[in-house]
Amino acid sequence: MLTFLSEKRAAVLAALLLLGFLLLLSVQVRLPDAGAAVQSGLMALFAPVARGTASSTDSVTGMWRRYVALRGLEAENASLRARVAELELEARALEEAAGESDRMRELLGLQRALTLPTVAARVILVELAGPFRVAVLDRGSRHGIQVDDAVITPAGVVGRVTSVSPSACKVQLLIDSSSGAAAMVARTRVQGMVVGRGMNELGMQYVAALSDVEPGDSVDTSGLDGIYPKGFRIGLVATVGDSEGLQRQVVIRTAVDFRTLEEVLVVVGGEGEPAPPVAAR
Fold it and tell me: What pLDDT, on a 0 to 100 scale, did the predictor assign at position 45?
């Protein structure tokens, strides 16, 4: 019995409260004078119950309002996060557009400064991990490009065209192990042949043991190979090793970063005239 009353306490209290108000109504009808006293007693008896009920109701109402407010904040935060993500994408797009604009401005400046005919092209594929270091451009024979045309950027020499289709061409990059370009040290006019040694690195061969070559020297094309016009930047001397027999071991860091190659100029129409100083910065 006690267990039942404990489990049904809320229902029992509600029933007692209802019964009390019915008794109050009956007494007021039958005994108007005694109604006030009975009403006062019943109010004193059931006031704690009413307060508890009201407090519980207020608590539930407050919890519901807080829940609704939190849900609103969550939705607002989600909307703000989405807007921040959109703004970040827009900022990256603007940054990329600004970078491309700067690169194209430099490329156009080089094209205008050259006395050689050139064709601007975009790099659509670069292979740097395989046995051959090559790139594919989006310009081909219908744009005047031929095999053995030199490919350059404002930074320096990229490579030479090895095959051509009407709308594309393949370029052997200067860092390919089977590439080669006639070169000279700008400061001392020491000449040799540069060959690919890996990512952004070349070796300069046929440099005499007593030649004056130092780290930091600029190395440019000499024009003696009939492919690369004279005066284009190849790179800077990184290290000069001890002489081995009649030659020195010279390592060159390329002027072009082949990992970020995007736009280039193809020198069309053969060897042509030497490059002006602006091309050999």
Answer: 56
